[in-house]
Amino acid sequence: MSQESRQQVARAVKAVESKKGEDVAILEMDRASGAFTDYFIVCSGTNPRQIQAISDEVQRQLAQAGLRPNSMEGYNQAEWVLLDYVDFVVHVFSERARKFYDLDRLWKSARRLKPADLLKKPKTKKAPKKAAAARSAKTGSSRKRAVAPKSRSKAKQRTRKS
User: CB neighbours (10 Å) of residue 34?
Assistant: First the structure.
């Protein structure tokens, strides 16, 4: 995920906190989990009016940065409002709905972040030596080029025999 997207997530978290969203969790989704986004922001509101106010503030803050949600669900019922920004999804729950759906447990492979973590550059995993060697072989290492002429000469020999 780009540093710009991480900054947008940080901005959304700041908006949640400005409206007193409770128990804020930032989940960096594990790529191997099959998640459809990079981050979840999960928080709770104490009543429907606060849940809507949190959702409104997130939309207002991100609109100032030129972002609009791809989709929004649950706003009128205000039990679980979902704001989908593609790279990240904001979930604003009532306390009861949050306990029931328990996204933190459902996506337990996700890494929990603090807002300060979003301002740091994302960590990149180093490839193991075997994987790096395999990649260089696929991209055309000198070893592969040395093998290619032999196979061509065998093809020429077969053509000459015929």
Answer: 8
Neighbours of 144 (CB within 10 A): 12
CATH code (residue 76): 3.30.460.10
pTM, whole model, 2 decimals?
0.70
Q: Are the CB atoms for 38 and 26 separated by under 8 Å?
A: no
**28 and 87, same structural domain?**
yes
* Count of structural domains within the chain: 2
Which residues does 55 contact at the CB level (< 8 Å), separation at least 6?
Answer: 72, 75, 81, 83, 90, 92
CB–CB of 23/54 below 8 Å? Answer: no
**Are residues 86 and 67 in contact, defined by beta-carbon separation less than 8 angstroms?**
no
Can you give the length of the chain in residues? 162
Tell me the pLDDT of the chain (162 aa) as tens digits.
Answer: 577 788 899 999 999 999 999 999 999 887 766 668 888 999 999 999 999 999 999 999 999 999 999 999 999 999 999 999 999 999 999 999 999 999 877 787 778 888 777 777 665 544 444 444 444 444 444 433 333 444 444 444 444 444
